[in-house]
Amino acid sequence: MEELACVRCMSSKFRNPNLVFSFNVCGHTMCANCIEVAFMKGSGPCPKCLIPLRRNGFKLQQFEDASIDVEVETRKKILQDFNKTEDDFESLDDYNDYLIEIEDIIYNLVRNINVIETKERIDQYKKENKEIIMRNRMKSKREEQALDELIEEEKMHTQYKRDEVLRDEAEQRTKKLRVDSELIDSLARSNSDARDIVNTYTHKKEEIPVPKPKPISKPINFTKFSTGVKFNQSSISISIKEGPLFKYEPVSHQLNGPSCPDITQLDSLGYMKYIRRESSQELAGGFLIKTSCLHYVQECVSALYERKTGKV
Backbone phi, then psi, for 157, in 5-degree steps? Predict the structure, then answer.
């Protein structure tokens, strides 16, 4: 893999580990210093491919290969408009063809293949599917808002439980400190044996209950979105039809040859004499060497009685 370097000054991370690289639509990488100098007026050509670029079009490079960043950004941009779901199509094949079309468009834009025709294709799609695009955008926005609400609610629930634990622990420490203070006062004022006094207050400290998690006073509902649809549940009811129970039927083989011995007869007839035994790993996986031996015998005698008639 080639070393990551700026296309203008040829500086690399090896020479300067503190360099920050950014990329633009052409996919060529430039360091932050060269971007400041080459695009002082806000726009200018790429130093390598001379494609017109804008300064605000540069984005921080996340991958070592800038082409991956370009593909990620292109994919995000395309999927904002090509946002149909499987429900928008009459069949699964139509939906799969639609996904293939998206990948072709992304590939052409990233690889600079038929860019003008591809952009015209995108514009035509936007005109023909304007209502569907806006509807799916609103739907996606509502789902994101519902997910944000769910995450925020879960954070509040976690914070509430954490605060409960901290309050219980603080209360337990306060009780223990109170017992220690009473122990010191008793040792200073009482004439009893110090060991008996210490043992008494030690038992008191041990009797202090350990804080246990309490149920929250106000239950938080994590099962529904703000739209009322249950989380991880489809809004379309699915009817399941019960079919007949499975009934096992032995497999019958048409060999067109002499009858084969049963699997229990392989040892007595000498078929297993020159075949290795199963290893412990094979036995653990459910593999039986007798089954393979029986299959080999069936293959050997299969079609021995078959005659060619010359007819097709």
Answer: -65, -45
